[in-house]
Design a protein that fits this description.
The structure is a single chain. Helix content is 30%, strand content 31%. The protein has 203 residues and is of the alpha/beta class. α5 runs parallel beside α6. The two termini are 28 Å apart. The relative contact order is 0.15.
Length: 203
């Protein structure tokens, strides 16, 4: 579902970015795009996990990434309910917790730590998540059946962005998805990769 919050959050992000970087392109989930004049693009998913957001459940996030050509330069995933942010650049990936006493329009982290993946398991021992809709299951039935049979535990998770932060934070072994959109994939994949994850395209 698309909510008013999705649209307003994306419009806000677009406004901030175009004000600072008018020559950059913007690619967003909620029918939003802006064609810039250079080869830099911002990928925005204002609320990844909208169903969880609407039902006041864990598992939603705001994610954004900057790509130049085919190279991701930086990425941020913010979990507002937990006040936790994950971010990465060329040098690595980090996890931060926002201060409760931060002034308005300021960025104040109570803590910040570099993150590195230490969980290393065989496929048959791995705990992985996916997202299965009726349409996706029909299209990729063999793929999902193999996933269930090959791994230790495969279950329907929350948003892709949140699951990739869980991988980066050593809480999960893998995330598998079919028909994934770039704004769903790029921010989390870059953070996970900089934390030490291996990215695989099954196509």
């Amino acid at each position: 579902p698309v909510t008013q919050a999705d649209t307003e959050a994306q419009n806000f992000a677009e406004g901030v970015l175009l004000n600072r970087f008018p020559d950059d392109s913007i690619v967003g989930e909620e029918d939003l795009s802006h064609k810039g004049t250079n080869n830099r693009s911002w990928y925005i998913d204002p609320i990844d996990g909208t169903s969880n957001y609407c039902n006041n459940r864990y598992g939603w996030a705001t994610s954004i990434a900057l790509v130049e050509g085919d190279k991701t330069l930086l990425s941020v995933i913010y979990l507002p309910a937990e006040k936790i942010v994950f971010f990465a650049d060329e040098t690595g990936a980090w996890k931060g917790v926002f201060s409760k006493t931060c002034q308005k329009n300021s960025v104040c982290l109570a803590s910040k730590e570099q993150i590195n993946i230490t969980r290393k398991k065989l496929v048959e021992e791995a705990n992985v998540t996916t997202w299965i809709s009726k349409r996706r299951f029909k299209k990729y039935e063999n793929f999902f059946r193999n996933l269930l049979s090959e791994t230790s535990l495969a279950y329907v998770g929350v948003s892709g962005a949140v699951e990739m932060t869980n991988i980066s934070d050593n809480k999960l072994d893998g995330w598998v998805q079919a028909d994934v959109k770039l704004w769903d994939y790029i921010p989390g994949a870059f953070i996970a990769e900089k934390a030490g994850a291996i990215l695989v395209d099954f196509e």
